[in-house]
Write a structure and sequence with these properties.
By secondary structure, the protein is mainly β. The chain has no helices and 20 strands. The protein has two domains: 143 residues, Mu homology domain, subdomain B (Immunoglobulin-like, Sandwich); 101 residues, Mu homology domain, subdomain B (Immunoglobulin-like), CATH 2.60.40.1170. It is elongated and about 70 Å long.
């Protein structure tokens, strides 16, 4: 995991493009255990035009710190490989962006990639514990961002959908309980990185239903990071000044915690 560095000169006032790496993270857990083969980060490298859209622009792009990525697929209309993929940490492409309509600012994808199967840094650890009694279910969670995420995570959302017989919910910290859909949602604008996991607890009234046969419900989780990507991939461009800033971001995709 790496914070966003400068590419060329961030302060260059004549920069033509900004670069964005955005990654979507998928994972499935059985309790606290990551399901084998389920972790995957899917990434895109995009450019955002800042100036001079009526001109053709060409630059070289090198992917550094790429040891954790594979299957790099360039947009063949804009980029072509000029260096074969190697066992090392870099790949190189020649980029040519044709003229665009004035005011065109929509990001354009230059290439796509994914993480290697053996690479699985868990950005958000959610450890569930269920307990059952006649007429009540209790869910306790311990939630923590990866220790390397110095800025933590933002827009964290933890959702659990309960059976129809659940009639009420009391949660700490207070979550949003929708009685019509039997759904509890905890939301956190920011989850800071900490050595101590953040606790959550919810008590569900089950209308007197017996505890026999009751099981834990799956959780779905959402989150984002606006300060880094997950794979550590770092794009570098030449000539200097073509690229202004490199922006890095990752978000959750299908991120599920099953509770056997």
């Amino acid at each position: 995991m790496s914070s966003s560095p400068a590419v060329g000169s961030q302060a260059a006032r004549n920069a033509v493009f900004n670069v964005l790496t955005i990654e979507q993270v998928h994972a499935t857990f059985n309790g606290a255990t990551l399901e084998e083969g389920s972790f995957r980060a899917e990434g895109e490298l995009r450019i955002v035009q800042l100036a001079r859209p009526a001109e053709t622009h060409a630059f070289d792009l090198r992917l550094e710190s790429a040891a954790n990525v594979r299957d790099v697929q360039p947009n063949q209309q804009l980029a072509r490989a000029v260096e074969p993929a190697s066992n090392g940490a870099s790949r190189a492409f020649a980029v040519r962006v044709p003229p665009r309509q004035a005011g065109a600012s929509k990001p354009v994808t230059l290439l796509k990639y994914c993480s290697k199967p053996e690479y699985a840094p868990i950005p958000l650890r959610v450890v569930p514990r269920w307990a059952f009694a006649d007429g009540a279910d209790r869910l306790e969670l311990r939630v923590a961002a990866h220790p390397n995420l110095k800025a933590g995570l933002s827009d964290v959302r933890i959702t659990v959908v309960m059976p129809d017989e659940v009639t009420a919910c009391k949660s700490e910290p207070s979550g949003e309980w929708d009685a019509s859909s039997h759904t509890l949602v905890w939301t956190l604008a920011q989850l800071p990185q900490s050595a101590t996991p953040t606790p959550f607890k919810a008590d569900f009234a089950t209308g007197g239903a017996p505890k026999a046969g009751r099981t834990g419900r799956p959780l779905t989780v959402q989150f984002a990071s606006e300060t880094c990507n997950l794979t550590g991939l770092q794009p570098r461009a030449a000539p200097s000044g073509t690229i202004g800033k490199v922006l890095q971001r990752f978000v959750s995709g299908r991120y599920v915690i099953n509770c056997p």
